[in-house]
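Key result, reporting period 2: structure in, sequence out.
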């Protein structure tokens, strides 16, 4: 039996890719320093999705990163804020997209995840 690795194709209207952080984004949510972040995303019209988030309250976060993926493909950085702050992001829906996933993550100075939102999935 042979395995074939299929890599996602970037759409022409996708934002440029930034390197993924080296931190493991699977974190223990029972840690007292872990923050559950608030992220709200809605499809505003046929071709756009708008996301908003609140200012992270954790005092050890140095940046907040919004990640996105199309059709369960590779994760890309959509927006980074240093220092972490409330923000918003509007994304055009790529052609042939069936679903868009968004997640908000905060990192400390060592690159460790200190906060994360639930994944928001928009079915188009």
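The corresponding designed sequence is given below.
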């Amino acid at each position: 039996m042979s395995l074939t690795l299929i890599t996602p194709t970037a759409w022409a209207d996708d934002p440029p890719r930034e390197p993924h952080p080296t931190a493991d984004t699977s974190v223990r949510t029972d840690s007292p320093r872990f923050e559950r972040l608030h992220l709200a995303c809605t499809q505003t019209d046929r071709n756009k999705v708008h996301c908003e988030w609140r200012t992270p309250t954790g005092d050890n976060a140095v940046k907040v990163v919004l990640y996105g993926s199309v059709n369960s493909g590779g994760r890309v950085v959509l927006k980074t804020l240093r220092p972490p702050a409330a923000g918003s992001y509007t994304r055009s829906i790529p052609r042939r997209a069936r679903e868009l996933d968004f997640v908000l993550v905060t990192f400390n100075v060592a690159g460790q995840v200190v906060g994360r939102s639930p994944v928001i999935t928009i079915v188009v």
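Confidence is low (pLDDT under 50) at residues 1-16, 19-23. Residues 35-123 form a domain with the Immunoglobulin-like fold (CATH 2.60.40.10). This case is discussed further under Risks and Mitigation.
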